[in-house]
Each structure stands twice: as C-alpha cells, then as structure tokens.
From TrEMBL:
This is Major facilitator superfamily (MFS) profile domain-containing protein. It is found in: Membrane. Keywords: Membrane, Transmembrane, Transmembrane helix. It comes from Cryphonectria parasitica (strain ATCC 38755 / EP155). Its main location: membrane. Residues 34-58 are annotated as: Disordered. The chain crosses the membrane at residues 66-89, 109-128, 140-159, 165-183, 195-216, 222-241, 287-306, 326-347, 368-389, 401-423, 435-457, 463-485. Pfam families: MFS_1 (PF07690). Residues 67-489 form the Major facilitator superfamily (MFS) profile domain.
Length: 510
C-alpha cells in the first residue's frame, strides 16, 4: 500500500495548525522523492504489494553489511564507556579524595543521561538525517572523552561523563533506525543482533579493559583510549555510511524543506523534534510500554550484575588487582557474543514460523514469543543461582562464572526481538527512531537506578537477596511480554482507529 499524491492533497488542509495557512498549499505540491514501504495496521505483509522498487533494496548486500558493521562499532562506544570505569572505581575515588559510592553515583548519572539522550536524538535524526546525526554526536563524544581524561576535580569528572553519555548514546538510537531503513521486517532481527554485538559486549569488556589499564598505568588512560575509539567512530560513518532515511512526501525532512517561511519551519521543527515525542508515543501505546519495561528489567539486571563485581567477588575469592576482577567480566561478555550469533536468527525464525501458521500473514507480536522463555526462566534463574552461590560461598569460581555466561547468552537472545518489535510497529509511521528512543529511555533509567542502589543494597541485604529482586523483576517483565503477545495487536488496532478519527493530518503528527 503506497500513499498517493491524492492522499496528500486530502490531508494537507489539516496541517494548517502546524505552520499557518500557507502550509496546506505547500504540502499539496510536495512530490515523493522515494516511496516508502507502508505496513498495514496489523503489520501484515500479505495486504498490498510492496513498492517497486522496494526501499529495502536500494543498497546491495555488501553495502548493507558494511554500514551495519560501522554502526556496530559506533554502538560499542557508549556501553563500553559506561562500565570501563567500574574496575577503576577505587583508583578514581582516591584521585579525587572521595568514596567508591560517589564514583558509582557518577556512573548512575551516566546512565540517566543515556536515558535522556534518545529523547533528543530519536526525533532529531528523523529530520536532519542519520549520517549527519552520527557525525555530530561522534565528534562531541570524542571531545567529551578528552575532557573527562583531563578533568581536574570530581565536579568536572561528573559533568563531562554526563555529556559523554548524552552524545554517545545517540548511536544506539540511530543504528536501529538505519537497520529499519535497510532491511525487510523478516531480516531485521538478524541485522540488529549484529549491531547489538557492540552494545551488549561493550558493558562486559569495558571493565576488563579498565582493569588492565589500572593495573599497569593511570585510570585516565581509559578515557584517552575511549577518545581513540571515538575517532574511529567518526571516520567510519564519514567514509562508509550513506544516508539511509526513506524519504517520501510525508517524511518530516521533505515537509520541512518545502515550508514557505522561516517561521513555519521553526514551528514545525520545534514540534517534530520535541524530546517529549518519544514519551508521548510510549504513553499512547500500551504494547510499547510493556516492551520498554521488559527491556528495562534486563538492563537493571545487567548493570546490577556488573557494577558490584569488584566489591562482591574480590573479597569472596581473595582477588588482589583490578585485572583479576576484570577477568570475571569475560563470562557475561562471552555469553553475549555467543547469544548474538543465534539471537537474531532465532527471532527471525520464530516470525517466519508464525507467518506460515497464519497462512502468510505477519503479526508483529509473534516476534516477542522468541524471548519470553529466555527472559522469564533462563535469565532469572541464572541470576538467582549466581547471587546465592556468591552469597553463601558455594560452588567456588566455576559456578558463578557459568551462570554469568548463561546470563549473557539469555540477554542476547532477548534484545534483538524487543528492539525489532519497536521497529516493526513504528516503521510505517516514520516513527522508528522515536519508538526505539522511548524504549532506550526506560531501559537506561532502570539501569541508572540499578547502578545507584546495588552497592548499598548488597551491603544491607546481601547479594543473594538483591539477585532475587532482579530475578523477580525479569519474571514480571516476561509476563508483560505475554500480555503484549496476547492483546498487543488489538491495542494497536484501537490506537490506529483513534488516530484516524483525528483526521489524516492530525494523525500524521500524532
């Protein structure tokens, strides 16, 4: 199903409240530059033929692979920065004459700004384009990393860490949006799994790298290395990333370019780039709320597992150096790599299997079936066994290492499905980046709270009981996914009806 020029002329008058009386006439004259693929209200690939040529076939496979590889590297930057300092917390605290809890708080604030960042860059990259957004945020991440390495006091350290998070996290929103632009729905989870190789492995290899650096040199070298990684993150998109955003007459970029006056442009730009748009999209979509909460419980679990390792495992196993404790991060990191190899393919396989069961019809919620068991059983059980084995000093080193590994595998099987679902239900409305942004906002708010409370909580109630809380949260998140699988399609249909009742133009803005 393709939007025709006649459709635009019908919807144009409703745009007058956006940018004045002249806007309707302007919009009616806008002609498509490239037709977008439109998914029906039930996300079925059966209803209506895909535009020819398909927007998903604009680039050859080798070019798609190259762009996904570049974005996977960029997606590594923010997560690795969020945890590389964990192995160096005592050394950083000593340098600034403060406590380890204070430095852990800086990491929690880092995650808060990781949560806020998508609300800005999600809507913005829908207007200025994917490549421009990547280059801008990469350059700022590079500069903020250098500033953090040179921070003279704890206040400067906090400020530059927060700015680093704000710019680096943009890649985690832009990357999925690019993949939504490039790949057919039944291919997206596989592509996303490769993109999230960096995002999932980064938090686990970061502390190992930090531990090696702190063992042999100054903790400040961590941030000089981070600046070097950011430099590669600028060069890669500059040379190898093409602009992928699907541009048609209803896209925000085209509408903005054709508005007649600067005032019209300013009003429209302020509306469509508002940081509140991802939040509004979440609040109007029960299915996206439940998927975001499920993602949040996984990130809570990830950071509450990784943050206290040096404080929990060092005394348990009599470890003496940051490098020794850093080696423990290899277990979940290796699990993430193993899970990445199969998680996306498994999600796409489940979708294709249900398409066959439904006689060729694709329903977006079927994708979520691929991760419920991994989240509600494997991940939660692994966290329980890890926590109580450490708390009760049983099983030696092998037992917690094995279940940290399984935890990494299970998470890597969940995230491709959760992220791809956001793309599937929002791509047709040109809101893929906003849907992913809302999801990331929730997940990193959970991560921030987990990072902030894990050290005092484990000191108060013990790692066993805190792990129990984390496991229960994941079970609740899995139940939310079950509800979405059961009722999500009906929720989306109701939401679509409400949008249509507002009129075509108002619906396009909602």
């Amino acid at each position: 199903m393709v939007v025709t020029e006649a459709d635009a002329s019908q919807s144009a008058p409703g745009e007058e409240d956006v940018a004045g009386a002249n806007l309707a006439q302007t919009l009616s004259n806008i002609r498509p530059q490239a037709e977008a693929a439109v998914v029906t209200s039930d996300d079925s690939e059966v209803e209506g033929a895909e535009p020819s040529p398909s927007p998903y076939d604009r680039f050859p496979p080798h070019r798609k692979t190259l762009m996904v590889t570049v974005m996977a590297w960029c997606g590594l930057l923010s997560p690795i920065s969020s945890t590389a300092v964990l192995s160096a917390i005592p050394e950083v605290a000593a340098s600034y004459h403060t406590t380890g809890s204070m430095i852990s708080l800086s990491n929690a604030l880092y995650l808060v700004f990781m949560a806020l960042s998508p609300c800005v860059w999600g809507p913005l990259c829908q207007v200025i384009g994917r490549k421009t957004s990547c280059l801008t945020t990469g350059a700022m991440f590079f500069l903020c990393s250098i500033a953090t390495a040179l921070a003279p006091n704890i206040a400067a350290f906090f400020i530059f860490r927060m700015f680093t998070a704000f710019f680096a996290t943009a890649f985690l929103v832009i990357g999925p949006a690019i993949i939504g632009d490039l790949f057919h729905p039944t291919e997206r989870a596989t592509a996303l799994s490769w993109f999230y190789t960096g995002a999932l492995v980064g938090p686990t290899i970061g502390p190992l790298i930090g531990g090696i650096i702190c063992t042999f040199t100054s903790w400040r070298v961590i941030f000089w290395l981070q600046a070097g990684l950011a430099g590669v993150g600028i060069i890669g998109p500059f040379f190898f990333l093409r602009e992928t955003m699907i541009v048609d007459k209803n896209s925000k970029k085209v509408i903005l370019a054709n508005l007649p006056t600067k005032m019209d442009k300013a009003k429209y730009l302020a509306r469509v780039t508002s940081p509140l748009r991802p939040i509004g999209l979440l609040l109007k979509s029960p299915n996206l709320i439940l998927v975001a909460l499920a993602s949040g419980t996984l990130v809570w679990n990830q950071y509450s597992l990784l943050t206290p390792i040096r404080y929990v495992l060092n005394p348990r196993f009599h470890l003496q150096t940051p490098l020794q404790s850093g080696l423990f991060y290899l277990a979940p990191g290796t699990g993430c790599i193993v899970g990445t190899l199969g998680g996306g393919r498994w999600a796409d396989y489940v979708v294709k299997r249900w398409i066959t069961r439904r006689d060729g019809q694709r329903v977006a919620e079927d994708r979520l079936r691929s991760c419920i068991e991994f989240m509600g059983f494997i991940s939660s059980a692994s966290m329980l066994i890890y926590g109580w084995s450490v708390d009760q000093a049983v099983g030696g080193i092998p037992l917690p290492v094995v279940f940290m590994f399984l935890q990494g595998v299970a998470q890597s099987f969940c995230f491709p499905s959760l992220n791809t679902y956001c793309l599937d239900v929002a791509q047709a409305r040109n809101k893929s980046a906003e849907a992913v942004a809302g999801n990331f906002m929730v997940r990193y708010l959970f991560g921030a709270v987990g990072s902030a409370v894990v050290l005092p909580a484990t000191e108060s109630i013990g790692v066993g009981w805190f792990s129990t809380i984390s496991a229960l949260l994941m079970v609740v998140g899995a139940l939310g996914l079950c509800a979405t699988v059961r009722w999500g399609r009906a929720w989306r249909a109701k939401s679509e009806e409400q949008r249509k009742e507002k009129g075509p133009a108002a619906a396009a803005e909602s």
